[in-house]
Amino acid sequence: MKIRLKYVVEDIDRHGNVRLYFRRNGKKIRLPGPVGSQDFLAAYQTALAGESRPNLQPSKKLGHIVPGSVRALCIEYFKSAMFRELDPRTQKVRRSILERFCEHKSDGEKPFALLQPKHIRKLRDEMMDRAAAANGMVKALRQLYTFAVRYDLHDRNPASDVEYLASKNPDGFHSWSLDEIEKYEEKHPVGTMARLALALALYTGQRRSDLVQMGKQHVRDGWLIFTQHKNRNRHPVRQEIPIVPELQRIIDRTHGTGDLTFMVTAFNRPFTSNGFGNRFRKWCNEAELPQCSVHGLRKAAAARLAEQGCTEFEIMAITGHRTSKEVTRYTRAASQKTRAESALKRITGERN
């Protein structure tokens, strides 16, 4: 008796070999044969559940997915609402990290219940030369086991006991100085798309994913009103930021702004977030500022607000941060400078 399963199709290659595929919504996923085998049925169930990543499907290279393994836990995690509610980019990054973990010395085939902090710590230490990647791995495992505990698949989170490595650059991206801003402005005058990009970043303090979406439709009575792209599906942050006169002047004098977005490519199309990052990198290099980046302008904007005496909550109202932790890191140097100036003024006043 021939087995017929929904969405399973057969293709014959040029050598006459029969190949099996799961075809749905215009996508095809290769299935291992023969039809009805254990590997085939496991791969079919995975594809049917919506998991199209070949790294986590049964294959001749990886073999059958072991029940109770780390890889099996990953598959369940990827199907959960906890994972699917994440931003698409976050999903992609986290999935990639967990897949690499599974492939490392076949760790994915080991029982997830036996993973201990010492195992994670050992792998973390092997990545000491890449602290950011090591910390990303620890963070991904924390989230994986948070899922396992929350869904009663496990009773503890071994990754939560593993410390992050100290970053070689605790302050993160370089924050632009006033001299660097002036140097960029000299190279890219008002009217160019490069200058508009600088002004939008500096006078709104937003991430590049928000900058590329800003347009005329977000302007209401001299205010920019929009919802930040990051966490827009889970914890949306609605922003209302006044357009300062200098920013409005630059917008008005910029040639070739788009209908839906202020910034457009040479083909009059909106930038993607990554495309804008690459283009801004080129503009910085043209101004001989290799150490500067668009994210550094977000830090510079927060630092300038701190130097003007703004409180953390006032700065958060501009940047859209939900907690003061990141704002404090952004403005640490500026706050120290402001406090030092205030302290010396007090001493001078007392003597006078």
TrEMBL record:
Domain Tyr recombinase spans what residues?
168-343
Keyword DNA-binding, does the record have it? yes
Query: Domain Core-binding (CB): where?
Result: 65-149
Q: Which domain of life is it from?
A: Bacteria
Which keywords, in A-to-Z order, does the entry hold? DNA integration, DNA recombination, DNA-binding
Give the GO terms filed under biological process for this record.
DNA integration; DNA recombination
**InterPro entries in the record:** CB (IPR044068), DNA_brk_join_enz (IPR011010), Integrase-like_cat_sf (IPR013762), Integrase_catalytic (IPR002104), Integrase_recombinase_N (IPR010998), Tyrosine_recombinase_XerCD (IPR050090)
Recorded hits in PROSITE patterns, A to Z, give: CB (PS51900), TYR_RECOMBINASE (PS51898)
Q: Which GO terms describe its molecular function?
A: DNA binding
Report whether DNA-binding shows up as a keyword of the record: yes
Q: Identify its protein family.
A: Belongs to the 'phage' integrase family.
Entry protein name:
Integrase
* Lineage of source species: Bacteria, Pseudomonadati, Pseudomonadota, Alphaproteobacteria, Iodidimonadales
